[in-house]
Structure formats: C-alpha cells, structure tokens
Amino acid sequence: xxxxxxxxxxxxxxxxxxxxxxxxxxxxxxxxxxxxxxxxxxxxxxxxxxxxxxxxxxxxxxxxxxxxxxxxxxxxxxxxxxxxxxxxxxxxxxxxxxxxxxxxxxxxxxxxxxxxxxxxxxxxxxxxxxxxxxxxxxxxxxxxxxxxxxxxxxxxxxxxxxxxxxxxxxxxxxxxxxxxxxxxxxxxxxxxxxxxxxxxxxxxxxxxxxxxxxxxxxxxxxxxxxxxxxxxxxxxxxxxxxxxxxxx
Length: 248
What we know:
elongated, mainly alpha, Arc Repressor Mutant, subunit A, 10 helices
C-alpha cells in the first residue's frame, strides 16, 4: 500500500459548526446563534446537576434558558445531544490538528502531536469537561450509550484514517487506532479522577507509553512483520493460513 495524503473527514451525527478563522469571522447572526446555544447548554447542565438527566425535560430546559422549543431543536435534535454539547467542535479541531501534524514517514508521530496539541484546549475547558464527565457517569440509558458509542467510533476513525496513510493495512490501522484511543481515554479518566485539578499534561503517561511503543514498531519495515508466522505460533490449526482473508 503506497503512502498517500488525503484530507481527513469528520462525519459524525449532529450539526456542523463552522470552524473559526481570521478569514471566517462569525457574523452578527452567527454570534447571536452561538450565544443562544450557550444559554441552552448552561440551563441544561444546571438542571441535570440539580435533578439528574432522567428527571429533566426539554420543557424544563427551554423554560430556564428563556427560549422556545423550536429554538432548542434547531440546535439539538434531541435531549441526549445536549449532553455532548461540544463533541462536534472537538472532533473538527482534532481533524484539523491531524492534518497540520501529518507525518508521512511515521503517521503515529503525527497522531501523537495532534493529541498532545489538543490537551491544552481540554485544560482551558476544564470546568465544562468536568461537568460533562460527571453527567456521563450517571447516564445509563440505551440512548445515551448508543450516542456515546457513535462518538467514540468517530474518534477512532479519525485516528485510523491518519494511520492508514502510511504502509498499514486498513485492519492494522483500525486496531492500532483502538489502542491509541483507549490510551487517550485512560488519560482523561485519570485526570477526571483527580477532579481535573492537576494539569492534564501530568496524566499523559499511559498514552505516551502506548504511542512510543507503536511508533517504534511502525518504524520497522512492513516486510519484517509476518502475521502468518505469528498465527503458526499461537493459533489453532483451523485458524492457520486464514490471516489473508481478514486483512481487507
């Protein structure tokens, strides 16, 4: 597989927010829209903290926010979406960072730089992230789990796309992306367990170790890896000789 560079795409469910740049300054209408959205998010989380997610209705949220129901649904397709108010923006930002830090020689290095560049932005949003994760720990509905699973899939897909620009096969990129994402979640869980009081950069040990391990192995020539030899050592006879069928 030749190494190529294609723009990373973000295609999660939900409404897209236009990335802010100097050449793309928000209009008065966009600013007002953003302010209304913030009012809805603030009201929702205030009620979630006071009553819990299940005992808070959309009617309660719009009443506290001082907006109409149609306005709420213009910003959030459902109540569950307001529990992930900035997920889309974070995904878009991560995709942008992956593009900026792309490393053709070793895409793992590019992913690492993008992840570490994102950490200060999480630090600056500490209070909101703490509220989000506290709420998410108490959420157990199938609707919430499905939405959270979709968000996680998109994060993994972005990492997988970046890794797949090198010599990895699609399945190799997906597996390594899952490992990197799991390590990143360990960082966030550790930070959260400390009440987000310490600098998040102090919690990067788990992901730094995983990324270093993956990057070191990526630097080896692909031909040096022998999946079939590995299966011959560890797999049952029925699985040997079948690895080529599952690498697509």
